[in-house]
Write a structure and sequence with these properties.
- The complex is a heterodimer of chains A (about 575) and B (about 260).
- Chain A has about 575 residues and is of the alpha+beta class.
- Chain A contains 15 helices and 21 strands.
- Among the domains of chain A are: about 110 residues, Alpha-Beta Complex (Flavocytochrome C3, Chain A, domain 1); about 120 residues, Fumarate reductase/succinate dehydrogenase flavoprotein-like, C-terminal domain (Methane Monooxygenase Hydroxylase, Chain G, domain 1).
- In chain A, strand 14 and strand 15 form a beta hairpin.
- In chain A, helix 13 packs antiparallel against helix 14.
- Chain A is globular, with a radius of gyration of 23 Å.
- Chain B folds into two domains: about 120 residues, Beta-grasp domain (Ubiquitin-like (UB roll)), CATH 3.10.20; about 130 residues, Fumarate Reductase Iron-sulfur Protein, Chain B, domain 2.
- Chain B is built from eight helices and seven strands; from the N terminus they run E-E-H-E-E-E-E-E-H-H-H-H-H-H-H.
- The longest helix of chain B has 20 residues.
- The chains are: A alpha+beta (about 575), B alpha+beta (about 260).
- Chains A and B meet through helix 1, helix 3, helix 4, strand 12 and strand 13 of A and helix 1, helix 2 and helix 3 of B.
Chain lengths: ~575, ~260
Amino acid sequence: MAEQRLIVVGGGLAGLMATIKIAEAGVGVDLFSVVPVKRSHSVCAQGGINAAVNLKGEGDSPAIHFDDTVYGGDFLANQTPVRSMCDKAPEIIYLLDRMGVPFSRTPEGNLDFRRFGGTKHHRTAFAGATTGQQLLYALDEQVRRYEAEGLVRKFENWEFLSAVVNEAGTCTGITALDLLSMQIEVFEAPSVLLATGGPGIVYGRSTNSMVNTGTAAAAAYQQGATYANGEFIQVHPTAIPGQDKLRLISESVRGEGGRLWTMRDGKPWYFLEEWYPAYGNLVPRDIASRAIHKVVFEHGIKIDDQNCVYLDVTHLDPDMLTRKLGGVLEIYEKFMGVDPRFTPMKVFPAVHYSMGGLWVDAEQKTDIPGLFAAGECEYQYHGANRLGANSLLSCIYGGMIVGPNMLARSAETAGEGGSAAADEKARMENRFAGLRSMDGTENAYALWNELGDWMTRNVTVERHNDRLKETDDKLQELMERWQNIGMNDHGQRANQELSFTNQLWNMLELARVITLGALARDESRGAHFKPDFPERDDENFLKTTKATWAADGPQLDYEDVDTEHIVPRARVYNVDIR
Amino acid sequence: MADEQNHEQNKAEPKNIEIRVRRQDGPGSEASWEEFSLPWKAQHNVISLLMAIQAAPVNAAGQPTRPVVWDCNCLEEVCGACTMIVNGRVRQACTALADELEQPIQLEPMSKFPVLRDLSVDRSRMFEKLKEVHAWVQLDGSHDLGPGPRQSAANQEQTYAFSRCMTCGCCLEACPQYNDDSDFMGASALGQVFLFNLNPIGAVQSEERLETIMGLGGLSDCGNAQNCVAACPKDIPLTKAIASLGRDVTVKSLRDLLGR
């Protein structure tokens, strides 16, 4: 038998961490990424990574981190995996420190920590305000070392198309598209990891990078993998507009003392501080986004006729701002032409993160044996709302535990592929031959713009059943119109329109999962808010939504949530109840 | 969502944005210019203009054409993907705001790397160089070995500046010494050598890292034009690193010569 290699799809934090764990055990990895891994979306994370190491002497502990995370997620996350993640967080920070991440320091030379939303503790380690970039680079460097040693083989500019699933229903490999030659190849391995990130591009413009189409997770879903809690989409309260994307202004800006306000009756109104005195500007994101909507739409308060509020750091020391928040403030200045150290920023909410994703068990296994998932493409750690600075943690933690689990599976079984690999390759080649010959009148990118507009309008901060229903009708219309796309690019190499058209179908499939999941959940929990059902309903909906693919649309099923450690309680941030 | 504040702020006169794109089907094929004319909108950047062409691929002469191929990802100047030449200057396309650019906005691929198609180029050589110079900290393993060494805030600030390098290629495009006829690794790789030699754990391998820049294509190929530091979008003090590495290499050469 040839040398055994495992497959990792995705070169962000989760994929790279898994790669390190596998390579460290002496097993080869084929690492697939649609962009050079150093350009993965993890670079966009700004504010930091959470770990309760209690270096500020505040009595913080992994147990409090666990409670904050479960409470912040409105009790929808299975508790045991979240607890394990919070317990492991300090060790992860120290590992990253040893890898050379230039974490910001205290005068004594210790790691510095700052505050973030949904907690009272200084728990967030940070590297200036480009923490995700710095973490990604550290892991990228370690993987490069294994690449230089020959253990890791990178397939950059390759796109995952589908899993190879044999007759027994086991994943034995993948098909992938070379984005330069546009050739499809099949790769076999006893375990495959999807670490392919979130689906923000389903919403057109969001804070996400262009690769975050969710296409890989959506492809696996169409092949039988369950997609969980799709309706839980985080809308970040503070972003700035652009024609191409909505750029994030990190929560760390408020963690370092930034305040949200708007002008009411000629005076500044610090609405979060007034409404949520216990947490003030550091309420969780779902709460802050709803508050901004309320100010702008219910109170009708705009600024210069624009839907926005002020995010203000002008009262803070400019040198501190440059040191601790330089990377973020630089984005505002470059794109808006105004120096936020001296003029308040104008911000408004934007789609940011998917709490939902591929269903996995505590070992990061999807329900297709041999297929694993880690990072934002799975659903496990954030419940109904993710706390800031927990995403970098969950990506690295997921990657850390999935690597050894993939190795364990490989030792126990080497899936018999049979003809599955050749069959799957043929299926994908047929699909792409069909795409190439599309000669209808629709434009794939124009359809995507429509998709984004509908999803953004109806499936974000406020959800109404009639509009969700209309949106699903629209999605089905877009799926019909997708069949009538006409290719403008008939080139044989680097044909971006061809791969995008394939991704667009997958985005439409995911959009239905998100929309119908939201329609069916008649309650309000975390990021999912229905004015017609404003209360959390634990009796009926303390449950994970599980969507499985069927020809006539997603089939929804529900699974009880693990609440073994913390009894669900009301979630309030205006007063301290602990 | 944040885009809702994008209401046309300037309804005075409808104007267009004129763009010229240098197009090329593949590495060996002829390049030619194609013009586009798009309606003005607030907050357009080069990326959103190219996206508008994707959604309605018609050139300024009214002829249907194929969408432009280019690289991009984060769109906030932290991933380094969308580097191209905009109006003669190498930079990231995402931070190239239409209202601040002279028209026609002229877009070309970087000239120091093989063109894949249109504005997309192959920068894999840059990543290969990072391998050659051992741009990493050599860990004993990823298991729990406790905290790393303490570091001063001053040291962190210095390393952080170099650790923001996105491998975007601006410094190489601007460098007169970096071209088809030379093996010069360029400022980005040298900056990473400086970075890892500064790291308290990375310093353990500083001798072997210095060796990788002492040969052909290494430090001595730098012509001190200082274009790199001017072109760097992250203001990384690359020339400072090169000067400092120069001293380190000299000391090491002397030591090697004297058998230590």
